Amino acid sequence: xxxxxxxxxxxxxxxxxxxxxxxxxxxxxxxxVVLGLEVVGQNAIQSMIDLAGPTNPxxxxxxxxxxxxxxxxSEGVKNAVHVS
Length: 84
Fold this sequence. Notes:
By secondary structure, this protein is mainly α. The chain has helices at residues 6-12, 22-29, 44-52, 57-63, 68-72.
């Protein structure tokens, strides 16, 4: 568990810096501690993406109701899981 600051979020999500939702993502991810996981194995990234489901929790609830985002996400960047 770690408490992220704005610089850490920017480093983790460099590809999102400057996008319209980035400041909201920083605000959300820095408000409390986060649990970081290192997942190792064949196709580990794709496996995590599949478990997480679509980034939009509403879409996840419709199309992948057992995914983590369908179960625990609420809206926008508050989608329960960030995979990078």
